[in-house]
Backbone:
């Protein structure tokens, strides 16, 4: 079975959404993120913007495929699993990754109970994702191909035949191409260049 090489994410921060229940206000936001530093930065900004709020609950997932996902769900003082996990559930439901969802709560004086909180946080997260532009991206491998100028035609013929995406090139006496290849084609492309005499290929991905 071929590993899935497409993932869904969002292109930019969602517009602010608002869900209300018994005078409590829940402001929902979705952000594209690729590092935990990105997560921290968005949380700090929202805490300044909503400094009078009671809770800043969130969930995020980072990574392009199931085997390298990093995720976290935070209830931020709400009862266990009443906020972070319902938010994370929407990330899973929409099948998106490299995304952070934050729901900021202003307490309205009336307790909602655990089931009320779960509904409020889940709905706010859902609204934030519905307001976002979700796109599909491919998981790509990057390779560096190095060769002498005399072998240029040999390399370029394969690049053309296989319709490879060249993202950088240095064409001098000693040449280097940086190519980007979809995950499902990565092994076969590597093997084609690896078999060629006087041509080196190496993986640039972590």
Residues:
């Amino acid at each position: 079975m071929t590993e899935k090489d497409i993932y869904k994410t969002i292109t930019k921060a969602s517009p602010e959404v608002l869900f209300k229940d018994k005078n409590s206000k829940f402001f929902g936001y979705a952000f594209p993120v690729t590092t935990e530093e990105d997560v921290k930065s968005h949380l700090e900004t929202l805490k300044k913007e909503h400094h009078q709020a009671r809770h800043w609950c969130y969930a995020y997932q980072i990574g392009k495929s199931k085997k390298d996902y990093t995720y976290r769900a935070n209830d931020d003082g709400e009862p266990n699993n009443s906020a972070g996990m319902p938010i994370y559930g929407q990330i899973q439901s929409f099948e998106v990754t490299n995304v952070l969802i934050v729901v900021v709560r202003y307490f309205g004086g009336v307790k909602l109970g655990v089931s009320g909180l779960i509904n409020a946080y889940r709905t706010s997260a859902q609204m934030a994702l519905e307001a976002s532009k979700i796109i599909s991206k491919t998981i790509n491998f990057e390779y560096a191909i190095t060769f002498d100028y005399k072998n240029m035609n040999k390399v370029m013929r394969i690049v053309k035949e296989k319709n490879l995406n060249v993202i950088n090139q240095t064409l001098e006496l000693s040449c280097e191409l940086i190519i980007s290849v979809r995950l499902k084609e990565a092994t076969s492309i590597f093997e084609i260049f690896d078999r060629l005499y006087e041509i080196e290929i190496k993986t640039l991905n972590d």
Observations:
- The mean pLDDT is 92.
- Residues 6-137 form a domain with the Ribosomal Protein S5; domain 2 fold (CATH 3.30.230.30).
- The longest strand covers residues 24-32.
